[in-house]
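Allow me, if you will, to draw on your knowledge of protein folds for a short while. I have a record of one protein: its chain in single-letter code and its fold written as discrete structure tokens. Kindly check, if you would, that the fold set down in the tokens agrees with what the sequence suggests. Thank you for your consideration; the sequence and its tokens are set out here:
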Amino acid sequence: MDLHLPSIATQCFVSGNAFVEDERVVSRLIRQEEDGEVTRVDVQLEAEEQLELPTGRVACRWIQLFKPKVAEENPEKDLKLTAENLFLTLAAPDNELGEEDGRLVQFLALMLERKRLLKPRGRNEAGTKDIYIHRGSKGLYEVPVGELTPEFFIAVQDQLSVLVGVPEESAEATADTEPKAETPVEQA
């Protein structure tokens, strides 16, 4: 299933002011309650306190520096939301992540390492982040180190379910799991 990652807005969701180059912008991906669509909300860091989020669940939040798009760039190129694009967006060196989003980035890094899109390069000097090199761009990405516990995977599953939705249970699957009454057998 492919989703589309909306590109960064050019103005603040709260104030309507245009973003300026290298301004810190807080971004969120939200699955809206009404229609289930994933939307992106971008606000100036200073205006975040006045933000009234649309009704829905926040999948992730990050802070990035605003870079205006160059006219000849292909806007369709970055729109497809794949694990790789989500990782590159969240793990960009100038982004600041919270603990929950750090977990998501760690999970995406493990997934992309398995697909051989990322190569581990060790840890940073403090030992708090794993360093990966991205095969396509040759960029270095630092990923928070964390313990891979069942709680870690449950938290990541919850975050990902906001983006891709929770699959509806089929009637057959439900029927198969329900206990069946035993039919008495008459013995002659």
Remarks:
- The two ends are 57 Å apart (CA to CA).
- The chain has one domain: 3-165.
